[in-house]
Protein backbone atom coordinates (compact mmCIF):
# COMPACT_ATOMS: atom_id res chain seq x y z
CA UNK A 1 0.00 0.00 0.00
CA UNK A 2 1.17 3.53 -0.74
CA UNK A 3 1.86 5.99 2.03
CA UNK A 4 2.83 9.63 1.95
CA UNK A 5 6.42 8.56 2.42
CA UNK A 6 6.43 6.12 -0.52
CA UNK A 7 7.57 7.40 -3.86
CA UNK A 8 4.89 7.24 -6.56
CA UNK A 9 6.25 7.02 -10.06
CA UNK A 10 2.90 7.32 -11.88
CA UNK A 11 -0.84 7.67 -11.37
CA UNK A 12 -2.97 6.87 -14.40
CA UNK A 13 -6.52 8.20 -14.60
CA UNK A 14 -8.71 6.27 -17.03
CA UNK A 15 -10.66 9.08 -18.61
CA UNK A 16 -13.95 9.52 -20.45
CA UNK A 17 -15.19 12.91 -21.69
CA UNK A 18 -18.07 14.42 -19.65
CA UNK A 19 -17.67 11.74 -16.99
CA UNK A 20 -17.07 11.38 -13.28
CA UNK A 21 -13.35 11.41 -14.13
CA UNK A 22 -13.69 15.17 -13.82
CA UNK A 23 -13.84 15.18 -10.06
CA UNK A 24 -10.92 12.77 -9.75
CA UNK A 25 -8.94 15.04 -12.07
CA UNK A 26 -9.80 18.01 -9.86
CA UNK A 27 -8.68 16.08 -6.80
CA UNK A 28 -5.36 15.12 -8.43
CA UNK A 29 -4.93 18.80 -9.25
CA UNK A 30 -5.55 19.78 -5.62
CA UNK A 31 -3.07 17.16 -4.43
CA UNK A 32 -0.48 18.25 -6.99
CA UNK A 33 -0.10 14.67 -8.17
CA UNK A 34 0.93 13.91 -11.72
CA UNK A 35 -1.79 12.42 -13.86
CA UNK A 36 -1.65 10.43 -17.08
CA UNK A 37 -5.18 10.16 -18.54
CA UNK A 38 -6.14 7.06 -20.55
CA UNK A 39 -9.26 5.02 -21.31
CA UNK A 40 -12.41 4.54 -19.16
CA UNK A 41 -13.69 6.37 -16.23
CA UNK A 42 -13.05 6.79 -13.46
CA UNK A 43 -10.45 4.16 -12.61
CA UNK A 44 -6.95 4.93 -11.44
CA UNK A 45 -3.86 2.84 -11.25
CA UNK A 46 -1.08 3.87 -8.96
CA UNK A 47 2.40 2.62 -9.57
CA UNK A 48 4.54 2.96 -6.47
CA UNK A 49 8.25 3.13 -7.18
CA UNK A 50 8.92 0.14 -4.91
CA UNK A 51 5.94 -2.05 -5.91
CA UNK A 52 5.98 -4.77 -8.55
CA UNK A 53 2.39 -4.19 -9.69
CA UNK A 54 0.17 -1.12 -9.86
CA UNK A 55 -2.72 -0.73 -7.45
CA UNK A 56 -6.00 -0.40 -9.37
CA UNK A 57 -8.94 1.46 -7.78
CA UNK A 58 -12.45 2.01 -9.19
CA UNK A 59 -15.56 3.89 -7.95
CA UNK A 60 -15.33 7.65 -7.50
CA UNK A 61 -15.81 7.63 -3.75
CA UNK A 62 -13.26 4.86 -3.17
CA UNK A 63 -10.73 6.67 -5.36
CA UNK A 64 -11.37 9.95 -3.58
CA UNK A 65 -11.18 8.44 -0.10
CA UNK A 66 -7.98 6.56 -0.93
CA UNK A 67 -6.24 9.60 -2.40
CA UNK A 68 -7.18 12.03 0.37
CA UNK A 69 -6.31 9.48 3.05
CA UNK A 70 -2.82 8.98 1.61
CA UNK A 71 -1.97 12.29 0.00
CA UNK A 72 -4.40 15.00 1.07
CA UNK A 73 -5.57 14.75 4.67
CA UNK A 74 -6.26 18.51 4.64
CA UNK A 75 -9.22 17.80 2.35
CA UNK A 76 -10.97 15.85 5.15
CA UNK A 77 -12.50 18.24 7.69
CA UNK A 78 -12.49 17.70 11.46
CA UNK A 79 -15.12 18.00 14.21
CA UNK A 80 -18.67 19.10 13.25
CA UNK A 81 -17.75 19.43 9.57
CA UNK A 82 -16.69 15.78 9.44
CA UNK A 83 -20.28 14.52 9.66
CA UNK A 84 -21.25 16.72 6.73
CA UNK A 85 -18.27 15.35 4.85
CA UNK A 86 -19.38 11.74 5.43
CA UNK A 87 -22.91 12.73 4.45
CA UNK A 88 -21.76 14.11 1.10
CA UNK A 89 -19.64 11.04 0.38
CA UNK A 90 -22.94 9.13 0.21
CA UNK A 91 -25.30 11.87 -0.93
CA UNK A 92 -23.38 12.80 -4.12
CA UNK A 93 -23.43 9.37 -5.77
CA UNK A 94 -26.52 8.11 -3.89
CA UNK A 95 -29.42 10.56 -3.70
CA UNK A 96 -28.25 13.35 -5.99
CA UNK A 97 -26.65 11.40 -8.82
CA UNK A 98 -29.57 8.92 -8.84
CA UNK A 99 -31.87 11.84 -9.65
CA UNK A 100 -29.57 13.06 -12.40
CA UNK A 101 -29.51 9.57 -13.93
CA UNK A 102 -33.32 9.65 -14.10
CA UNK A 103 -33.03 13.03 -15.84
CA UNK A 104 -30.57 11.49 -18.33
CA UNK A 105 -32.90 8.55 -18.92
CA UNK A 106 -35.82 10.93 -19.52
CA UNK A 107 -33.76 12.91 -22.02
CA UNK A 108 -32.83 9.65 -23.78
CA UNK A 109 -36.51 8.61 -24.04
CA UNK A 110 -37.48 12.03 -25.35
CA UNK A 111 -34.81 12.09 -28.07
CA UNK A 112 -35.02 8.38 -29.01
CA UNK A 113 -35.38 7.77 -32.77
CA UNK A 114 -38.82 6.08 -32.95
CA UNK A 115 -41.55 5.82 -35.62
CA UNK A 116 -43.42 9.15 -35.91
CA UNK A 117 -46.69 7.61 -34.70
CA UNK A 118 -44.96 6.44 -31.51
CA UNK A 119 -43.35 9.82 -30.89
CA UNK A 120 -46.34 11.30 -28.95
CA UNK A 121 -46.17 8.30 -26.60
CA UNK A 122 -42.42 8.52 -25.87
CA UNK A 123 -42.62 12.32 -25.61
CA UNK A 124 -45.59 11.98 -23.25
CA UNK A 125 -43.71 9.54 -21.00
CA UNK A 126 -40.67 11.83 -20.91
CA UNK A 127 -42.76 14.93 -20.18
CA UNK A 128 -44.68 13.22 -17.38
CA UNK A 129 -41.45 11.96 -15.80
CA UNK A 130 -39.90 15.42 -16.07
CA UNK A 131 -42.90 17.33 -14.71
CA UNK A 132 -44.06 14.92 -12.05
CA UNK A 133 -40.76 13.59 -10.76
CA UNK A 134 -37.50 15.17 -11.91
CA UNK A 135 -38.39 18.88 -11.81
CA UNK A 136 -39.91 18.95 -8.30
CA UNK A 137 -37.18 16.70 -6.88
CA UNK A 138 -34.45 18.75 -8.49
CA UNK A 139 -35.95 21.88 -6.98
CA UNK A 140 -35.97 20.25 -3.54
CA UNK A 141 -32.33 19.13 -3.85
CA UNK A 142 -31.02 22.42 -5.23
CA UNK A 143 -32.84 24.52 -2.63
CA UNK A 144 -31.39 22.25 0.05
CA UNK A 145 -27.86 22.62 -1.39
CA UNK A 146 -28.18 26.39 -1.68
CA UNK A 147 -29.11 26.45 1.99
CA UNK A 148 -26.25 24.09 2.89
CA UNK A 149 -23.69 26.38 1.26
CA UNK A 150 -25.13 29.36 3.14
CA UNK A 151 -25.32 27.66 6.55
CA UNK A 152 -22.18 25.46 6.52
CA UNK A 153 -19.93 25.95 9.58
CA UNK A 154 -17.50 28.90 9.83
CA UNK A 155 -19.38 31.13 7.43
CA UNK A 156 -20.00 28.48 4.76
CA UNK A 157 -19.19 28.92 1.08
CA UNK A 158 -18.19 25.27 0.65
CA UNK A 159 -20.34 22.25 1.48
CA UNK A 160 -18.60 21.42 4.76
CA UNK A 161 -17.48 24.85 5.92
CA UNK A 162 -15.37 27.73 4.62
CA UNK A 163 -12.71 25.60 2.91
CA UNK A 164 -12.54 23.18 0.02
CA UNK A 165 -12.91 19.51 0.98
CA UNK A 166 -13.17 16.21 -0.88
CA UNK A 167 -16.96 16.60 -0.63
CA UNK A 168 -16.96 19.69 -2.87
CA UNK A 169 -14.88 17.81 -5.41
CA UNK A 170 -17.25 14.84 -5.37
CA UNK A 171 -20.31 17.07 -5.77
CA UNK A 172 -19.09 18.70 -8.98
CA UNK A 173 -20.27 16.00 -11.36
CA UNK A 174 -23.97 15.78 -10.35
CA UNK A 175 -23.98 19.58 -9.95
CA UNK A 176 -22.75 20.11 -13.48
CA UNK A 177 -25.37 17.67 -14.72
CA UNK A 178 -28.01 19.73 -12.87
CA UNK A 179 -26.75 23.07 -14.22
CA UNK A 180 -27.40 22.04 -17.80
CA UNK A 181 -31.01 21.07 -17.01
CA UNK A 182 -32.30 24.06 -15.06
CA UNK A 183 -32.98 27.32 -16.93
CA UNK A 184 -31.70 30.45 -15.16
CA UNK A 185 -29.81 28.24 -12.73
CA UNK A 186 -27.44 31.06 -11.75
CA UNK A 187 -30.35 33.25 -10.63
CA UNK A 188 -32.28 30.58 -8.71
CA UNK A 189 -29.29 28.94 -7.03
CA UNK A 190 -26.40 31.45 -7.14
CA UNK A 191 -24.25 29.79 -4.47
CA UNK A 192 -24.57 26.35 -6.02
CA UNK A 193 -23.93 27.79 -9.48
CA UNK A 194 -20.54 29.11 -8.45
CA UNK A 195 -19.29 25.65 -7.40
CA UNK A 196 -18.56 24.34 -10.94
CA UNK A 197 -16.33 27.33 -11.65
CA UNK A 198 -13.70 25.83 -9.37
CA UNK A 199 -12.85 23.02 -11.78
CA UNK A 200 -9.31 22.59 -13.07
CA UNK A 201 -9.22 22.62 -16.83
CA UNK A 202 -5.70 23.63 -17.68
CA UNK A 203 -3.97 20.70 -16.06
CA UNK A 204 -5.96 18.03 -17.89
CA UNK A 205 -5.46 19.72 -21.23
CA UNK A 206 -1.74 20.06 -20.56
CA UNK A 207 -1.33 16.45 -19.42
CA UNK A 208 -3.36 14.84 -22.17
CA UNK A 209 -3.07 17.24 -25.07
CA UNK A 210 -6.86 16.88 -25.42
CA UNK A 211 -9.57 19.50 -25.06
CA UNK A 212 -11.38 19.38 -21.72
CA UNK A 213 -15.16 19.21 -22.28
CA UNK A 214 -17.21 20.14 -19.19
CA UNK A 215 -20.36 18.11 -18.69
CA UNK A 216 -22.38 21.34 -18.50
CA UNK A 217 -21.39 22.30 -22.08
CA UNK A 218 -24.53 20.84 -23.59
CA UNK A 219 -27.91 22.18 -22.49
CA UNK A 220 -30.50 19.45 -21.91
CA UNK A 221 -34.05 19.79 -20.69
CA UNK A 222 -35.82 17.62 -18.14
N1 LIG B 1 -20.62 4.81 -9.40
C1 LIG B 1 -19.55 4.79 -10.37
C2 LIG B 1 -20.12 5.13 -11.74
C3 LIG B 1 -19.13 4.95 -12.87
C4 LIG B 1 -19.75 5.30 -14.22
O1 LIG B 1 -20.90 4.96 -14.52
N2 LIG B 1 -18.97 5.94 -15.09
C5 LIG B 1 -19.46 6.31 -16.40
C6 LIG B 1 -18.97 7.68 -16.76
S1 LIG B 1 -19.44 8.91 -15.63
C7 LIG B 1 -18.90 5.37 -17.47
O2 LIG B 1 -17.81 4.85 -17.34
N3 LIG B 1 -19.65 5.15 -18.55
C8 LIG B 1 -19.19 4.42 -19.67
C9 LIG B 1 -19.76 3.06 -19.77
O3 LIG B 1 -20.59 2.69 -18.92
O4 LIG B 1 -19.35 2.34 -20.70
C10 LIG B 1 -18.47 5.76 -9.92
O5 LIG B 1 -18.77 6.70 -9.18
O6 LIG B 1 -17.30 5.59 -10.27
Automatic annotation (TrEMBL):
GST N-terminal domain: residues covered: 1-75
PROSITE patterns in the cross-refs: GST_NTER
Pfam families according to UniProt: GST_C
Transmembrane segments: 88-109
Keywords, comma-separated and alphabetical: Membrane, Transferase, Transmembrane, Transmembrane helix
InterPro entries in the record: Glutathione-S-Trfase_C_sf, Glutathione_S-Trfase, Glutathione_S-Trfase_N, GST_C, Thioredoxin-like_sf
An annotated Gene Ontology molecular function: transferase activity
Family: Belongs to the GST superfamily.
PANTHER family in the cross-refs: GLUTATHIONE S-TRANSFERASE 1, GLUTATHIONE S-TRANSFERASE-RELATED
Protein name: Glutathione transferase
Organism annotation: Lepidopterella palustris CBS 459.81
High-level lineage: Eukaryota, Fungi, Dikarya, Ascomycota, Pezizomycotina
